Amino acid sequence: MPKFNFFPKVNFLAYIKRIKIKYNPCASYNDNCRKLIHLIEAKQTKDKFLNLEYKLELIDYNEEPLIEIEMQNSKLFKFNPENHDLSEIQRVIDEDQHMLHQQFMKTNLLENNENSFLN
């Protein structure tokens, strides 16, 4: 019997409009920022999320690091990478991602398409 995935996991970068990363590459927290940068810079990710905008800013030792995420519904999240890793960030933005995913699925279902073969 085939296995079906009725509730697929939403990608970390799904439904994100803009990401701004401010960090110091020599600091101890930079693993979180580096993982996020590698995730964004991957060719597969760039091909999948064409409209994703991101900005990388290197800061001084005394400045505070920041990961700023703007969702497609214009909701803004700010995280300090010293205190939050990527899994914690995912948990915080997860509710908005699922809400946006549900809206997308409602408007793009096959049954809602006028050119559907079911009509």
TrEMBL record:
Species of provenance: Plasmodium ovale (malaria parasite P. ovale)
Gene field: PowCR01_110016800
Name listed for the protein in its UniProt record: Uncharacterized protein
InterPro entries according to UniProt: Ribosomal_mL53_fung (IPR042776)
